Amino acid sequence: MNSTIFLDSDGVINEDNEYVYKREDFKFLPNVTEALLKLQSHYLLFVITNQSGIGRGYHSENDFIKLNEFMIQELKNQGVIIQETYYCPHATNHDCECRKPKTKLLERAAKEFSINLKNSWVVGDKMSDIEMGKNAGCKTALIKSRFVEFIQTQKFDSLYEAAEYILSYNALLRCRELLKAVNLKNRKL
Ligand SMILES: [Mg+2]
Ligand SMILES: [Zn+2]
After folding, report:
1. Spacing, Cα 50 to ligand 1 middle (Å)
2. Ligand with minimal distance to 12 CA
3. Distance (Å, rounded) from C-alpha 135 to C-alpha 119?
4. 95 catalytic, yes or no?
5. Cis (ω within 30 of 0) for the bond into 101?
6. What tens digit of pLDDT does each residue of 100-123 get?
7. Tell me: domain 4-188, CATH 3.40.50.1000, correct?
8. Nearest alpha carbon to residue 125 among 139, 103, 146, 106
């Protein structure tokens, strides 16, 4: 079973300039490629994003699809493979089943790519990202943003910092398992 990183896009991969749909307004955040390259040596990468600009009529679904293709291609040029982008196109008042913090998109990915959710992470810059992750039994990492200024929980300055934490967390787990195995062996001797 695969372990994955479910990435939010706005505020994690690119600057959150609210309902961005034009290529000229799309800006990658610093060190995103480096962070994703690190992560993808251990995890499959997915994007899950709320795109209510579509449901609100600020731009078309096709605008989003084109911008997402651009992002995916730019990352691919740097060697980063995003397996799939899942998005909710609905406005908040549609009361749909796919908008974060609901878990429908994440569960769809889990089914389609045979993902072990317990070993997977959600990285986002809003509490709706983190809640989706917790609701699905994933681990979570919150990136600092204007949306979470007052939230008293561990926050990372960037995706890069979160990536380092995620990878060191894994190393720690492996160490613990190794120690456990050694202890068991010693006990048997
Ligand atoms: Mg965001
Ligand atoms: Zn939706």
Report:
1. 8
2. 1
3. 14
4. no
5. yes
6. 999 999 999 999 999 999 999 999
7. yes
8. 146
